[in-house]
Write a structure and sequence with these properties.
The chain has 4 helices and 4 strands. It is an alpha+beta fold.
Length: 120
């Protein structure tokens, strides 16, 4: 890492593990962005912002339901209409993808399916 090499020249007692932990802290605090393998940029030097997306009402309902039913479940939600900002051909029908831990996927799907059938 160039960062480690330059810091070791300046500070003789500087360790590589400290550089890595400092780098991770900057990434977590959104001060630095990873743009490639071992390539980073400071947000201050570029007119960059983090991508934010407002979920649809259906996705918010699913998120609320899953958080209530499974408070310790690690899951991610993705919608096809998120791609509309990046595609020339707009997605006409929204599909909501829910990624859950592999061991629990069937169980979570069955609970969601049962919940949706009860509302019909």
């Amino acid at each position: 890492m160039i960062l480690c090499v330059s810091l070791k020249k300046t500070y003789t007692k500087f360790s590589e593990s400290y550089a890595k932990s400092t780098l991770q802290k900057y990434i977590k605090n959104n001060q630095i962005a990873r743009i490639g393998r071992n390539k980073y940029i400071f947000f201050d030097n570029y007119d960059l912002s983090l991508y934010n997306y407002s979920f649809s009402e259906e996705a918010c309902k699913i998120n609320k339901f899953l958080n209530k039913q499974f408070p310790y479940l690690d899951f991610k939600i993705f919608e096809l209409i998120q791609l509309n900002e990046f595609l020339n051909h707009q997605v006409a029908h929204n599909v909501i993808f829910i990624y859950v831990e592999s061991d629990l996927s069937t169980f979570v799907f069955d609970v969601l399916k049962k919940s949706m059938l009860e509302k019909i």
